[in-house]
Amino acid sequence: MTAIAVTIAGSDSGGGAGIQADLKTFSALGVYGASVITALTAQNTLGVTAIHEAPADFVRAEIDAVFSDLDVGAVKIGMLASPELIRTVAGGLRDYGQRRVVLDPVMVATSGDSLLKSEAVATLRDELFPLATLITPNLPEAARLIGRPVENEPDAMLSAARDLLALGPQAVLIKGGHGTSAESADLFLDADGPRWLSAPRHPTRNTHGTGCTLSSAIAAGLARGLDLAAAVAEGKAYVTAAIVAADRLTIGKGHGPVHHFHAWW
User: Mapping DSSP to helix (H, G, I), strand (E, B) and coil, where does residue 32 land?
Assistant: First the structure.
């Protein structure tokens, strides 16, 4: 049986994040990738210059086309800019009985550009969190989702993770990449309690697409039959290696992408 994962996300014309990063990650980890594109972005390593949101009825048509035909093992969800799109995706997940869902609540690009309308935050929490196997916010996203200041101390991260878990997902992974310590420490929390996944912080400006890459790596693991904790550990190891190898690439004038194919190129 071929492992299949689907990414439901926006397109990054620069190739470093979004749908493009997800499909590269699936391929690198031995999983066939399909896609449901929710938005087009005019984007490069310097920033986002335009966003064209896909109509909700077309996104639903994409969902129907993919899930009615492919035996999907896991779903990664990224950029959903509006309440209507969020409700459309939630309805599709329910209709097709998807149970392995990794939700990356994409709010702001690496460049600082906003990718989620303010009125969509509550809809994201209400509609998609209860359907998610795992949500993967970074520190600013976690703070925005629960209405708190951004904090990176371990106790504050654990408190935030507990609040997010209470909103309905099966597990939470708060990414510590925005922290300032020598270690990049992510906090994984599920019904079995908290676990920390740490790696040395690697100095590079080429971090475009790290969040997309991590969440799609976890989805790839789930599609291949790993349990959630093992998929999270594998995803952390993969994205860490991709960041360490990022400076082997020379892409653009700004925040370049991580190296998805570091093991082959």
Answer: strand
Q: Could you tell me if residue 179 is inside a domain?
A: yes
Domain assignment of residue 13, yes or no: yes
Give the total number of structural domains in the chain. 1
> 209 an active-site residue?
yes
The closest alpha carbon to 217, from 45, 1, 27, 12, belongs to 27
Catalytic residue from among 24, 76, 175, 236: 175
Q: Is residue 122 part of a domain?
A: yes
Catalytic residue, chosen from 15, 92, 177, 211, is 211
Give me the catalytic one of 25, 110, 207, 240: 207
152 with 178: CB under 8 angstroms?
Answer: yes
Rounded Cα distance between 6 and 9, Å, is 10
Select which of 78, 212, 221, 240 is catalytic. Answer: 212
pLDDT, tens digit, 9 for 90 and up, residues 208-217: 999 999 999 9
| pTM of the predicted protein model | 0.95
In a domain, 258, yes or no: no
Q: Is 207 among the catalytic positions? A: yes
Which residues constitute the domain of residue 149? 4-248
Within 13 A of 77's CA, how many CA atoms are on the CB side? 30
112: annotated active-site residue: no
Which candidate in 16, 92, 179, 209 is catalytic?
209
Would you call 212 a catalytic residue per the annotation? yes
Q: Is the pLDDT of residue 177 over 70?
A: no
Q: What is the DSSP string of 149-181?
A: ----SHHHHHHHHHHHHTTS-S-EEEB-TT--S
Per-residue DSSP letter, 201: P
Known catalytic residue: 175?
Answer: yes
Report pLDDT for 152.
80
Looking at residue 202, what DSSP letter applies? P
What is the Cα–Cα distance from 156 to 169, expressed in whole angstroms?
19
